[in-house]
Amino acid sequence: MLWKTGLLVVFLGTLSVKSEPILPSFRIPNLPLLLQNHNIPNPDVKYINAFQEFLVKYLKEYKTNEEIIQRFTIFSRNFDLVERYNLEDAGKVTYELNEFSDLSDEEWKKFLMTPRPGKPRKTSKALSKSLETLPDTVDWRNVNETNHVTGIKYQGPCGSCWAFATAAAIESAVSINGGGLENLSSQQLLDCTPISDKCSGGEPIEALSFAQTHGITSARNYPYYFWTTKCQETVPTVARISGWIEADGEEEMARIVGSKGPMIVCANFATNKNRFYRGGIADDPDCGTEPTHALVVVGYGPDYWILKNTYSKVWGERGYMRVRRGVNWCGINTEKPLLPVL
């Protein structure tokens, strides 16, 4: 026993202890003093604590003290805004601070895109008008215990929602038609769709046209980089569409989504209630109808649509959003919803 103990002591003595790497905390030391020195003499501790938590959660860093003050000021205003919205819509919709909380209204609108109105093309397919009985609720994430919707993506600072929405709708179409569920390349659509403004916005109908003419590869073959790169023309094609169906109004959209699959929609997202959405059925009568963001309708309930977004799983209802059905919420039918057809 003594020998074993002694050996243990000697052995431990020969071990080299490696120190853990020091990781950045992202918290700002002496933030209250910094604020006081920049003419914010008595900052409320709730703003300071929330701002420090925000920095850590979203790995935020600012280059200068002036930028820290600017972002703190914007964040504090948005903090008050979220509190007010939660009081106004209590019991219906909830809101929360998120990664966009240090952006001004003008910066938030620049983060979004401005799609050009799409024009019907001869490749648009006619939908049979035979009405079939559709269920009150449809969710393509679970149809007969089968998922036909890929996971939530994160577009980052690039206005590439139009490419992501197009890829997502094609992914579901392939799966519903028995081809398996696979992530397709939004980066290929972003880089190679000729009529688009790339990270500054684009039109899903142009991305569909590209997928019809050239096909689309997998995300594994052509991954997403958060910015525009040079179009790669030698990647293998894993899916190709023959055209698409356009819906005239929400009633027809329900019929198509219920029987065929998820559809691409564009809506006005340049509102703070959409920016800070956390959960519930969104219904903002002051939203406006000019499309600024592309999403995918993956299902519906009796009085709502289920939208798939590209702001990561920490936004909204684990990356999804429910919005009021039948009221043209935020101009969801300003541009015709689109269903890719294989």
From TrEMBL:
Keyword annotations: Disulfide bond, Hydrolase, Protease, Signal, Thiol protease, Zymogen
Q: Does the keyword Hydrolase apply?
A: yes
* Organism expressing this protein natively: Caenorhabditis tropicalis
Q: Point out the signal peptide segment.
A: 1-19
Q: Which GO terms describe its molecular function?
A: cysteine-type peptidase activity
Superkingdom of this entry's organism?
Eukaryota
Q: Which family does it belong to?
A: Belongs to the peptidase C1 family.
Gene3D superfamilies the UniProt entry points to: Cysteine proteinases
- Pfam families noted in UniProt: Inhibitor_I29, Peptidase_C1
Which parts of the sequence belong to the Peptidase C1A papain C-terminal domain? 134-341
Name of the protein: Pept_C1 domain-containing protein
Q: Which InterPro entries match?
A: Papain-like_cys_pep_sf, Pept_cys_AS, Peptidase_C1A, Peptidase_C1A_C, Peptidase_C1A_papain-like, Prot_inhib_I29
Q: Where is each Cathepsin propeptide inhibitor domain found?
A: 51-108
SUPFAM superfamilies referenced in this protein's UniProt entry, alphabetically: Cysteine proteinases
Query: Biological process GO terms, please?
Result: proteolysis
